[in-house]
Each structure stands twice: as C-alpha cells, then as structure tokens.
Write a structure and sequence with these properties.
- By secondary structure, this protein is an alpha/beta fold.
- The protein folds into two domains: 134 residues, HAD superfamily/HAD-like (Rossmann fold, 3-Layer(aba) Sandwich), CATH 3.40.50; 72 residues.
- 47% of the residues lie in helices and 14% in strands.
- The protein has nine helices and six strands; from the N terminus they run βαααααβαβαβαβαβ.
- Strands 3-2-1-4-5-6 form a six-stranded parallel β-sheet.
- It is globular, with a radius of gyration of 17 Å.
- The termini are close together.
Length: 219
C-alpha cells in the first residue's frame, strides 16, 4: 500500500471500518425477522444470507427473506415493515457503537484528500447516524449508501468529478474489494471488525494489503 497522502480520494466502507457495527447489524437482522413472525431458524437463515452478501444493501436481503425463506411473495407492505423495523433497530444500536480510533488524526493528516463514505447501509440513515455521532464533517466528498449499490455510486461520482484519482477504497468485505477493482481503485482490507469468514484466504489469493484497524494506515 502506498502512503495515504498519495491518494486524492479515500473511500471508506462504514460497518467494520468506521463503526464497529457488523455484529450489531447481524443482531438487527435477527430481531427484525423475529418481529416479522419468523422462527429462530428462519431468522438465522436471513443472518447467514446477510453475512454471505457482505457489503450489499438490505433490499435484496429482505426480498430473499420473503421469497426463499418464508416462501411468500414480495409485496410493498411487507417490505416497508421490514425496512422500517430494521432501520429503527439499526439507528438505535449504532447510536453508541465504537468509532474507529484515529479517524480524527487521519483526517488531519490528509487535509487535501477527499473523503467519502460508501456503504451498503441506507443513505439517509447513514447521514443521520454520522451527524449524531459527530463525524459527518470528516467526509467532504459525501456519505452514500443504498438503494444505489456501490458500483453505481462509484461510477456516478467519478463521472461527476467528485471521485478523483488516484483513489483508495478501505473496506472489509469481498464486495468492497470487487467494487474497488471495477472502479480502478487501490484497496486495503481491514480485518479487525470484519464478519467475512473467509477473509484471510480471499486476501492472500488476491494479493490484498491487510491491516487490522483504521489507525494502522500509514500516514
């Protein structure tokens, strides 16, 4: 990995990178499924699918929950209830979770570098949480999330001139890495909070730089 000052833009995933929130998201999926009427095995099946699709938005996950786990059609009322209940639970849980150590020092060390958040989480929800946690101001290039996926956001922001190269993506999932490669960005994997079970083998086979925490990034 090159020194971080080399990059004109740094794109950060949220869960497992900026916030220690991966396990909290797992809890939120399980709780939302149970509240919807699922049994524990069905709720765990949703959790397993969520972990499998690390970095992907909640929309396809809840569609899968309805069609493949509960064996029922996707309808607007069911999706709205699932999305609303999940969003409320996420905001409650993420209000107090740990913020990555060294975030402020890294921001001070890269005053001329654009910072962007790119998450599978809901965009409006992310912006509210970051504002409440007092870290929204760090990300001058914007805070982005679903319903747009990461590939769509990266392509759009590049076209708009908001994502400037050379650029670095800091993530903790397979999808983060794949999206960065498709966008022509460098990538570093943070292992400390990841819920990607096969991360070590994946990173080694793809020659990916591995760091434990955000604070380990070389200034």
């Amino acid at each position: 990995m090159k020194p971080v000052a080399y990059y004109k833009t740094i794109v950060f995933d949220c869960d497992g990178v900026i916030l220690d929130s991966n396990q909290l998201k797992i809890d939120a999926y399980f709780y939302t499924a149970i509240k919807f009427g699922a049994n524990e095995a069905q709720a765990q099946a949703l959790v397993d699918y969520h972990i499998l699709l690390g970095g992907i938005s909640r929309y396809p996950k809840f569609e899968y929950f309805l069609t493949d786990i509960l064996k029922r059609p996707v309808d607007d009322l069911s999706m709205q209830k699932l999305l609303t209940d999940f969003g409320l639970e996420v905001e409650r849980l993420l209000a107090d979770c740990e913020i990555a150590e060294g975030l402020d020092r890294l921001r001070e060390a890269t005053p001329d570098t654009k910072w962007m958040v790119l998450s599978g989480g809901d965009q409006l929800e992310l912006r509210r949480i970051f504002a409440k946690r007092g870290i929204a101001h760090f990300f001058d290039a914007g805070i982005f999330g679903s319903p747009d996926n990461k590939d769509e956001v990266l392509a759009r922001e590049c076209d708009l001139g908001n994502l400037v190269f050379p650029a670095l993506f800091v993530g903790d999932s397979r999808y983060d890495h794949q999206a960065s490669v498709r966008a022509g960005m460098d990538f570093v994997f943070l292992s400390g909070w990841t819920d990607f079970k096969g991360w070590r083998e994946y990173c080694e086979s793809n020659n990916i730089t591995i760091l434990q925490r955000l604070s380990d990034i070389t200034i």
